[in-house]
# Entry
Amino acid sequence: MTNRLETPEYRVFSRFLIAHAKLMREFDATLREVCDIPLSWFDVLVHVSLEPGQRVTHTRLGERTLMSQGGVTRLVDRMVKAGLVARRASRADRRKSYVVLTDSGREKLAEAMPTQLDSIQELFVQHLEDGDTEVMDGFFRRVLGLE
Amino acid sequence: MTNRLETPEYRVFSRFLIAHAKLMREFDATLREVCDIPLSWFDVLVHVSLEPGQRVTHTRLGERTLMSQGGVTRLVDRMVKAGLVARRASRADRRKSYVVLTDSGREKLAEAMPTQLDSIQELFVQHLEDGDTEVMDGFFRRVLGLE
DNA sequence: TGTCAATACTTTCTATGTCAACTATTGCTT
DNA sequence: AAGCAATAGTTGACATAGAAAGTATTGACA
# Structure
């Protein structure tokens, strides 16, 4: 039964899981050490800043960060308390509430972005050789059902 | 600043993250639906069964499942309560306690293994084309610092 | 042999996330 | 316009995991 676990394909899968765990751990540890924020906060800062108008609804933020709605509310709560983001009620639709960066949030992002980009470079991108990028991009697109 | 986010390499990294989240979600959902256990329990069952003598110490189980020691204790607690595994004190070293499968645990594994192997096949392995396996294996090995 | 650092596991405290129920608001349909 | 399903966000109950301190046991070494 477990012999199917010993194929090269399964081994790749297994390494995929371990690599993911390792990367997440190190990204989080580095961001906490250098910038004093967890990876989840960095994610929010980035996704707010990437949005047109530098503002996101909770729902969209949930899609981007792959979190549940309740989870987003609480994550944003903590970041509001820390002063990195603020909520701004939408005029057009009073159910909506936009998440925006505060000055402090913008500063924190400017500080954390190079840190995180360096980590990604060092732990992930650096190991991409020759055609690896294209191969892996194709693979992940298929996994995600894109195109 | 964010322009480095728009390179093909970063895009691969981003898809890697999204793919991981998607796969974990679906594996867990399928195992819960079909076999009524979470992915974390399946992981434990597999790692116990793969061990020589079909028994693992908590410490080793933690290394295998990438979990903290306290996390392992409680995860095993829950599975003991559910009757899938049991703890067996070590004679040689009375600090150690081995985790072993119960009959019920062995049955559950026999039921869950094909389910999970099918999921992995369908959601991951199926999308590996031609030389993809070798390319990705090499990449993940480098990421993990193997060899 | 007595001491003490290391090891194995447990436990407490806390952080964080999910699910489902709830509230408010919107906008479609008649 | 009234009714009502859909949408946005919050909240309560609960599940789970990590960090660090605590307990028991082992083994090395003076």
